[in-house]
Design brief:
The protein contains eight helices and seven strands; from the N terminus they run ααααβαβαββαβαββ. By secondary structure, the protein is α/β, with parallel strands linked by helices. It folds into two domains: 46 residues; 171 residues, Rossmann fold, CATH 3.40.50. The protein is globular, with a radius of gyration of 22 Å. Keywords: Membrane, Transmembrane, Transmembrane helix.
Length: 226
C-alpha cells in the first residue's frame, strides 16, 4: 500500500468520525428540545392562571442541569424535578426540606432553579466530599443550601420532599409532617404504581384525616397539604 493510499484511508476514517459525531450532536440536541416540549406539556399548567405567570416567564422551563445529572448515579427523573420547580415557584415557597438519603441532585438543582433555601441532614448526603465538590463546580450560592446535624420539631419548611430513596414511608412521614409549615406541602415521588408501603401510608393518611392527593402524572406523586 502506497503512502498516498494510506493517508487517504486515514483521512477517510476521520471524515466518517466527524460526520458521525455531527449526526449524533444534531440528534442529541433535537432530543433535548423534544424533551423540553414534553416536560412543558406534562406539568399541565393553565397559562391564563395568574399564579402561573412566574412559571411561564421562565426561559429554562423543562431544562435540567444536564452536566450535573450526568455526575449522579440515581438522579430523579426530569418530569418529577420540573414538577418540584414549578410547585415551588407557583406557590412562592421559600424553604424546602429533603428527607432521606440523597446524592444532592435535587438540592443543587432546586437551589439553582428557584430562589429557595434547601435544607437536609448532613448525614443524608451519601457522599459528602463529592457533594461539596459539586456545590463548588456549579457555583451554588452558600445561602441556598443548609446542611444540619439534627432537625428539631420547631423547624418549619414550606415544602418537604421525601427522596426517591425512601423506604419507610410511614416513619418518614411522621418524622417530617410536623415540620411542614402552615399552607405548606409534603410530596412523595415514584407513586404511580403504589408499593405496599405506599398503600399503607395512604390508609394511614385517611385514618388520621390528612388532606392529600394521589396524582398519576408521569411516575406519580402523593401530595399532602396543610
Amino acid at each position: 500500500m502506497s503512502n498516498t493510499t494510506r493517508y487517504i484511508l486515514i483521512a477517510s476514517v476521520f471524515i466518517v468520525l466527524a460526520i458521525g459525531f455531527t449526526v449524533f450532536l444534531v440528534l442529541f440536541l433535537k432530543a433535548r428540545k423534544l424533551k423540553k416540549i414534553i416536560l412543558k406539556d406534562a406539568i399541565k399548567l393553565d397559562a391564563l392562571d395568574e399564579k402561573n405567570k412566574a412559571v411561564f416567564e421562565r426561559k429554562d422551563i423543562g431544562e435540567m442541569i444536564w452536566e450535573l445529572k450526568d455526575k449522579i448515579n440515581n438522579p430523579l427523573d426530569d418530569i418529577s424535578m420540573e414538577y418540584f420547580i414549578t410547585t415551588i415557584i407557583r406557590n412562592g415557597f421559600k424553604t424546602v426540606w429533603i428527607e432521606n438519603e440523597t446524592e444532592g441532585y435535587e438540592i443543587i438543582t432546586l437551589a439553582l432553579k428557584t430562589k429557595t433555601k434547601i435544607s437536609t441532614l448532613k448525614s443524608s448526603i451519601i457522599d459528602l466530599n463529592k457533594f461539596k465538590e459539586l456545590l463548588a463546580e456549579f457555583n451554588v450560592p452558600e445561602d441556598r443550601v443548609e446542611l444540619i446535624e439534627k432537625k428539631n420539631l420547631k423547624d418549619k419548611f414550606d415544602f418537604v420532599i421525601l427522596s426517591n430513596r425512601t423506604k419507610e414511608y410511614n416513619t418518614s412521614f411522621d418524622n417530617t409532617w410536623v415540620n411542614v409549615d402552615k399552607n405548606g406541602m409534603l410530596i412523595i415521588t415514584d407513586c404511580r404504581k403504589l408499593t405496599r408501603d405506599q398503600k399503607d401510608l395512604i390508609r394511614y393518611l385517611k385514618l388520621i384525616g390528612i388532606r392529600f392527593e394521589h396524582q398519576k402524572i408521569h411516575e406519580g406523586f402523593i401530595i399532602a397539604a396543610k
